[in-house]
Design brief:
The protein has 3 helices and no strands. It is mostly helical.
């Protein structure tokens, strides 16, 4: 997965997840990705593994998750 724009990747994940998620459900600009991640976890959504790794990578790169 070569997505480098977290919002574009998040929108793609939202529509392709099973069940799909609503991207931007709560329009808090600096928390959109966190809300999407929470929605995906809460619904036990299935997401393509390459997209999932890239999406989680944004959180690791930002220092929000420990990669270990």
């Amino acid at each position: 997965m070569s997505e480098t724009d977290p919002l574009a990747l998040a929108q793609l994940i939202a529509v392709t997840a099973k069940p799909p998620a609503v991207f931007g459900r709560i329009p808090i600009e600096d928390r959109v990705l966190d809300i999407l991640l929470d929605d995906l976890v809460e619904t036990h959504a299935v997401v393509d593994s390459a997209m999932k790794e890239a999406f989680i990578g944004f959180f690791v790169d930002a220092g929000e998750l420990d990669a270990h």
